[in-house]
TrEMBL record:
UniProt catalytic activity: (sulfur carrier)-H + L-cysteine = (sulfur carrier)-SH + L-alanine
Pfam families: Aminotran_5
Protein name: cysteine desulfurase
Names of the cofactor(s): pyridoxal 5'-phosphate
One annotated GO biological process: cysteine metabolic process
Keyword Transferase appears in the UniProt entry: yes
InterPro entries named among the record's database cross-references: Aminotrans_V_dom (IPR000192), Cys_dSase_SufS (IPR010970), PyrdxlP-dep_Trfase (IPR015424), PyrdxlP-dep_Trfase_major (IPR015421), PyrdxlP-dep_Trfase_small (IPR015422)
Organism: Halovivax ruber (strain DSM 18193 / JCM 13892 / XH-70)
Domain Aminotransferase class V: 31-402
Protein origin, superkingdom: Archaea
Record keywords: Pyridoxal phosphate, Transferase
Amino acid sequence: MSHQRVEPLDVEAIRAEYPILDQSVDGTPLVYLDSAATAQTPDPVVDAMSDYYRETNANVHRGIHHLSQQASAAYEEAHDRVAEFVGASGGRKELVFTKNTTESENLIAHAWGLRELGPGDEVVLTQMEHHASLVTWQQVAMRTGADVKYIEVTEDGRLDMDHARECITDDTAMLSAVHVSNTLGTVNPVNELVDLAHEHDALTFIDGAQAVPTRPVDVEAIDADFYAFSGHKMAGPTGIGCLYGKEALLAELDPYLYGGGMIRKVTYDDSTWGEVPWKFEPGTPPIAEAVGLHAAVDYLEEIGMERVQAHEEHLAEAAYDALSDIDGLTIYGPEPGPDRAGLVSFTLENVHAHDLASICNDHAVAIRAGDHCTQPLHDTLGVAATARASFYVYNTVDEIEPLVEAIEDAQSLFA
Ligand SMILES: Cc1ncc(COP(=O)(O)O)c(C=O)c1O
């Protein structure tokens, strides 16, 4: 594995900050293996948000009173802190708060895509895009007359880079690719993809919803033009997501949503916009959530993202090995290694993924079943649904055993 030399996590100490994990379902200790959907939130993040509500709560950018000034400062600083966490040196000028990754995708697809795309332009996606990217670009392409192309996935769950080189041409206006696949666990070669797109003067959007929570990410090293992620998958709260964009690109884009808080001057006839990021954040923003996300970033940085990654890779490998021993079980995505993240999707012969998840629930094991918002990818894999176990900093290798027992139980029930 790639990061074996970092100091292992003290999972027991980590779990002490997640009281939600210390519960039983019908008398059996809960095993939470659904962090790729939403990760749990540690006490320091919950405390930061409850302190905010107890001590600082007010609307931002509007008041000159003490609380409003404090809330505004906390909200603004959160942008800088999160920007720093992902290596964006422009701070708040490059980091917009949205509702989630999905809204970040929509922001660029609408603000940039509706203006720039037209017949003859191509948007290149991968076959493993989440619907957040796939549906959004598909619909904006339909409205503008642009075409959408998909880079194919190989048998072993990686991107076919030969096909990527065929797909990305001088007609490519935008390459939008997922950094880490939420279904296959594949870590895509985003630097190479971005370089390829830039060689053809295309812009790039990277969906980092599963990457930022689980590994060190440096948006400038990737050279992505836009990069998106969600608070709730990285030990932060729901209701807040992020859009990184290169300063010059964000500065020249028009807003996507309109209203108060984002304007410079309004008359009955016309309006002008404030600075980035405020021009993309109309209305009352997620203030407490920004405070929580700031705390989540502090929390993750204190653990160390390299250790988070190593822990995830270790768990994924252990799960991969344990599940591989089960007859009739198929695992999707690459074998464990540096291009495989900490989640494992699988199917079990004769057992529908939903039945499997339901029997896992009987064993107090929380996994996800369905298409994981990647329906076309599931069509390509030839399955309607998969079951997915995903891990985070608080999971232990011992928690894989109850998963295996639940799967074996399902197997005997449906034999
Ligand atoms: C790869 C990927 N992209 C986008 C999303 C959408 O994230 P959100 O629901 O927070 O907008 C997810 C969520 O599962 C994801 O895994």
